[in-house]
Fold this sequence. Notes:
Elements: H1 3-7, H2 13-27, E1 30-37, E2 40-46, E3 53-60, H3 67-79, E4 89-92, H4 97-102, H5 123-132, E5 136-146, E6 153-157, H6 165-172, E7 183-184, E8 187-188, E9 193-196, H7 208-213, E10 219-225, H8 230-250
Parallel strand pairs: 3-4, 3-5, 5-10, 6-9
Antiparallel strand pairs: 1-2, 2-4, 6-10, 7-8
Helix pairs in contact: 2-3, 3-8, 6-8
Zinc ion (ZN) binds at residues 63, 66, 144.
Amino acid sequence: MNFEFQRHRVHDYRFLSKRWQILARKAGLKTLGYCTAEEFELFCFLSPALTEAGGIYLSAGIHGDEPAATEGLYQWAELHRSVLRELPVMIFPCLNPWGLVHNRRTDSENRDLNRCYHLDTLPRINAQIELLRDRKFRLAMCLHEDYDAQGAYLYEIRQKLSPFGRELLAAAGYYVPVDLRRTIEGRRADYGWIARRINLKKFPLVAEAIYLANHSERTVTAETPSEYDLGLRIQAHVAMIQRAIELSFLSTGRKA
Ligand SMILES: [Zn+2]
């Protein structure tokens, strides 16, 4: 597919979802339309290798003004089409289609959906949570962009396993610089890596990644700098997803 052609269509949700459905059919993934939000159908793709425990959760596009995330997730899947059947993936390719189409962070009612996982009033979030309720993942990745960023950075919610965020940033660093600020979004950062320890019993589950931390051994929120070249940001996401999956399966990373 011609990349220049796609570059102008990264906010075209119908084009994105059509490409995903073709890819899912060719790859042997199950397509699940799980909710309608605004006028758009939301999809999830499931590999036949996915079981209740040990899967890989990948999502993008909860913020619509972050197109390298949605496009990067698609490009990663396209690149690995022949092995998707064997990888236990659960993929949410775009959680906010209206936002993507309108290049807006929020949904049509000005809600930041990434602050709504504690609510039970949004049908799309209820429907997604229903799909996740009984699952435990080995890895959960939420893909984002940030227009204030000076490079790629990521949040890693630290649980039992040894962290691997720095290695993901090293993979992104082939394409975009790593954000070297000491403080990012009010949190202490170490070469783009923001480690978070969260007491999940006390912390309100407002954000997707916080919700997922209850369901995943590793939870990563990856960010690329949205003022940087689109093609390189897309490649940075592809590289981070791939590295995270490799590392998740190479070893359990459990501390002795
Ligand atoms: Zn975001």
